[in-house]
TrEMBL record:
One of its GO terms (molecular function) is aspartic-type endopeptidase activity. It comes from the Eukaryota. Gene3D superfamilies: Acid Proteases (2.40.70.10). This is Aspartic proteinase Asp1. It comes from Carex littledalei. Keywords: Aspartyl protease, Hydrolase, Protease, Repeat, Signal. Residues 27-50 are annotated as: Disordered. The keyword Transmembrane does not apply.
């Protein structure tokens, strides 16, 4: 069966080939974790930070990604960037000149010599050891894609919630040699927006420059679109379900969870999960995948649905008539629940519409995939499909990850 690109779109950055990889434990010790508390707008602005909100484009199916328009440079030019909480480095396909670039939506970014980040810059040492003058980088992703290039810094135009525009200079990768899954297919984005917790992440840079606090969140719309935000002004702290961020993890992880289907335990405890907005689908490691698939299949046995093969995804069902939308199909399926064991033991409820895809062939397919097939052994990935219509907050200030059900199709007023 042909594998469409989005199945493997799993942009979890496996930093970094050249030089030493930064470990999350370094990041954790350098950013002091504070006790969580409700924060009013007044408190937030008195700390000198602010927030910025960006509309998102894209969807889970068929585009397989959510992306934001960033205006970079002087004069500022727009670029589409794939929103990725699974990696730290932001990069653009780049004319430096380019050795291997795909066809991108906008003209390639062109750096000047003055924009090069010197190797002696602390942000470069976070990425690699200093051997040459310029700061070369290489990132590899779990989907086997990679980008090789040089670190540059340039102005990012950010419109803050209080209507001011700021233009902080941020370091990012100018990628002149990309290995992509489908090198000949035009790319949907000009690059990747790395929102991980490490030092090279633009979130850490914005925090260091006093622009926003190191809090980032997204709301991925079920019918596409949604919004992304930097800073904590919009976060309804007291209503959000919070789990402490695992400090041993390189990625954003709310710690271990137990797995339930239709209200019954599947016997899976201590399931290690990470949240990754750069992955279109959710991937479970072998055991939980096996347990879930058995439970769903046995449950579907009591309905009129039949298993069907579909080129879009590995496990699909058809009804008596082709499904037109998720709402036709969801009544045949039960909810999955991840129950986290740390903190106040929050649940992540995953209703059928957050794990099913209705394809153009009218089948309902499981959007939770077999992680072993893409080489995941130690942890499962919660991807875009499961994060739809939730506001998800990665609070690096307080060391916690939170979520709350929200319709993401409206940009919040702030
Ligand atoms: C908006 O917030 C930024 C950062 O806190 C501050 O520098 C700027 O003066 C504020 N602008 C207005 C119009 O209040
Ligand atoms: C998941 O993938 C692995 C590796 O390809 C395979 O051995 C295993 O049988 C698969 N699990 C299921 C339930 O299909």
């Amino acid at each position: 069966m042909a594998k469409p690109q989005q199945i493997l779109h799993l942009l979890l950055g496996l930093l970094i080939l050249i030089g030493a990889a930064p470990s999350i434990s370094d990041a954790a010790t350098s950013s002091p974790y504070k006790k969580s508390k409700s924060q009013s707008k007044a408190e937030a602005s008195s700390r000198g930070g602010s927030s910025a909100v960006f509309p998102l484009s894209g969807d889970v199916y068929p585009s397989g990604m959510y992306y934001v328009t960033m205006n970079i440079g002087n004069p500022a030019k727009p670029y589409y960037l794939d929103v990725d909480t699974g990696s730290d480095l932001t990069w653009l396909q780049c004319d430096a000149p380019c050795v291997s670039c795909s066809k991108v939506p906008h003209p390639l970014y062109r750096p000047t010599k003055q924009k090069l980040v010197p190797c002696s810059d602390p942000i470069c040492s976070a990425l690699r050891q200093c051997e040459t003058l310029q700061c070369d980088y290489e990132v590899q992703y779990a989907d086997q894609g990679s980008s090789l290039g040089v670190l540059v810094s340039d102005a990012f135009n950010l419109r803050l919630a209080n209507s001011s525009t700021v233009r902080p200079t941020l370091a990012f990768g100018c990628g002149y040699d990309q290995q992509l899954l489908n090198p000949n297919a035009p790319a949907l984005t000009d690059g990747v927006l790395g929102l991980g917790g490490g030092k090279v992440s633009i979130m850490s840079q914005l925090k260091d420059q006093g622009v926003t606090r190191n809090v980032v969140g997204h709301c991925l719309g079920r019918n596409g679109g949604g919004f992304l935000f930097f800073g904590d002004d919009l976060v309804p702290y007291s209503k959000v379900s919070w789990a402490p961020m695992s400090r041993t993890h390189k990625y954003y992880s709310p710690g271990p969870a137990s797995l339930y289907f239709g209200g019954k335990s599947l016997g899976i405890k201590q399931m290690d999960v990470v949240f990754d907005s750069g992955s279109s689908y959710t991937y479970f490691t072998s055991q939980p995948y096996q347990a879930l698939v058995s439970a769903v299949k046995s449950d579907i046995g009591n309905t009129p649905l039949k298993e069907a093969s579909d080129p879009s995804l590995p496990l699909c069902w058809k009804g008596q008539k082709p499904f037109k939308s998720i709402s036709d199909a969801k009544k045949y399926f039960k909810s999955v629940v991840l129950s986290f064991v740390n903190g106040k033991k929050p649940n992540l409820e995953i209703p059928p519409e957050n794990y099913l895809v209705v394809t153009k062939y009218g089948n309902a397919c499981l959007g939770i995939l077999n992680g072993s097939e893409v080489g995941l052994k130690d942890f499962s990935i919660i991807g875009d499909i499961t994060l739809q219509d939730l506001m998800v907050v990665y609070d690096n200030e307080n060391g916690q990850i939170g979520w709350i059900k929200t319709a993401c199709n409206r940009l919040p007023k702030s």
